Amino acid sequence: MAQANTPTPMENAAKPVQPEVPTNRLRTLLQELYSFFTRTDATHLEITKLLHAPQDTFLYHDTSALAIDHATAPRQSDLANLRDNTTKSPAQREAEKQDLVYVRLNDGDVGTVVNGGQATTETMVKAFEIVLEDERVRVVLVNIYGGIVRCNMVAESIIQAAARLGPLRCPMVVRLQGTNSEEGQRLIQESGLNLIAESDFE
């Protein structure tokens, strides 16, 4: 996608099916659409029908769709405010308030909490609350890869969050990989909570 705005791909994309469509105007439009796509952190941009109108203008006809990366909503607030939140579950809306991304799947009984770059106690508490609200969840998998983030610090946040929630209604498996992962696993094992420390998936 990073090379899509070079002359050759744009020239090819702007070749019209009908010869009376001005290539230069169409190429400019495609460049503007590409710029909009990248500027808005979009993951999907679709125009069902594009009509060539009088005076060499173009009209969007029928339907169009735009999807932006959920994680970029804070910096794309103008677009995020246009979303129809009535179709979202209370858990999804609550997650977005906490800058979390929550995806509820149709099947399965394993709830997952992943990443951890911002794994503070508060975010962990909210993440666990949201996942455990789903009555289908029988076990929670916390999968953390600590690059520049130290796993022992993440482990402390997980322990504090689990302790604040009280007795967990299901086991919680914590997989830590990365910086200080062994120390993090030791803290999880010695926490005295319903937490199971693992270093891999085997």
Automatic annotation (TrEMBL):
One of its GO terms (biological process) is tricarboxylic acid cycle. Residues 106-198 form the ATP-citrate synthase/succinyl-CoA ligase C-terminal domain. PANTHER family: SUCCINATE--COA LIGASE [ADP-FORMING] SUBUNIT BETA, MITOCHONDRIAL (PTHR11815:SF1), SUCCINYL-COA SYNTHETASE BETA CHAIN (PTHR11815). The lineage of its organism: Eukaryota, Fungi, Dikarya, Ascomycota, Pezizomycotina. The keyword Nucleotide-binding applies. One of its GO terms (cellular component) is succinate-CoA ligase complex. Residues 1-20 are annotated as: Disordered. It comes from the Eukaryota. Keywords: ATP-binding, Nucleotide-binding, Tricarboxylic acid cycle. This is Succinyl-CoA synthetase-like protein. GO terms for molecular function: ATP binding; succinate-CoA ligase (ADP-forming) activity. Pfam families: Ligase_CoA (PF00549).
